[in-house]
Amino acid sequence: MRIATINSKRVHFAEGGDPSGFPVVFANSLGTDFRVWDPLMPHLPGGLRLIRYDMRGHGLSDAPVGEYFMGDLVADAAGLIDHLGLKGVVFVGLSIGGVVGQGLAAERPDLVRALVLSNTAAKIGTPDTWAERIADVRRGGIAALADPVLERWFSKPFRDGRPEELAGWRHMLTRTPMEGYVGCCAALAETDLRDSTARLRLPVLAIAGSEDGSTPPDLVRETADSIAGARFELVRGAGHIPCVEAPEKVAALISGFLKEQGIV
User: Fold this and answer.
1) CB 34 within 8 A of CB 60
2) How far is CA 240 from CA 36, 94, 116, in A?
3) Which one of 10, 31, 96, 218 is separated from 183 by 20 to 30 angstroms, measured CA to CA?
4) In DSSP terms, which residues pair with 89 in a beta bridge?
5) Looking at residue 202, what DSSP letter applies?
6) Cβ 70 vs Cβ 189: under 8 Å
7) Cα–Cα nearest to 227, from 209, 202, 207, 250
């Protein structure tokens, strides 16, 4: 367990792979923690320094009370990378983690050499849909939303065929601190990065899941199409978290992307 104090908040992170290797930073999705990347890790190329962290309000990172802003989440990511003394990382973000990656690349281009945007977009949802989500969680807790959330996260074959794993992901979701969950919902509600993301000029791989009920493929493709030179890839049969449902396929896409950049 490693904890860094970033912007007066404690951020939980872990490192794996080669400590002297090229740094790759992973940011989790709403309602998960950095263990969401566990299935992917064994399939990535050797020689990489693999850094995963729990987003503010998730896992073992601090979950302050009150609305969060995307600028807070971007500053946390930047602060951690600065804390580790790194520049020019590959940033891999899933869902809200991918929104953070877009903001980080726009605000601190010195920190990001390339982006992998998994199941995300420059703008996700509307203020009204996120306000409704926040109200539902405040009223009934995260558990009340678990079934529809899991239906968006995972394909039906996964849900039907892997009940023990599904139960584990349900536990991760429902044990997310409420303040962290609604805080990040508030950050998504106020975020529209379409203009700044369209101005990005760095290598980008965008990944979508064909069965994703949260950020459908067309939404992911729209963001990819707005970035000059970005590549879009569809993982067929996977939902919102393909790094769990199809880790070998996602690892192959990331590995190929890293080879194109001369990193592996």
Assistant:
1) no
2) 12, 9, 15
3) 218
4) 112
5) S
6) no
7) 202
